[in-house]
Design a protein that fits this description.
Helix content: over 70%
Largest sheet: none
Distance between the termini: 46 Å
Strand content: under 5%
Radius of gyration: 23 Å
Amino acid sequence: MARQFALQLGLLAFAASTADAAVTGQDVSGGLWTALGRLAVFYGLGLVCGGLARLLVDEQVQRDFERWLAAADATANSTP
């Protein structure tokens, strides 16, 4: 999931950079190198943000599951 987010973010940065280079009239090689550099930076940023989001969701699900399990055990133990 983090890789998919990183890929989408990187490709979006690449597309925006190449469009910017085309609109401003930069030469093709300079614009592509800039776009590739931005793709790499935003891919890395997407990996980090996607990984953190996955960890946060995993922790929340684990906490909710443990809370649900404790409530189920309490209910099972309280019935005569």
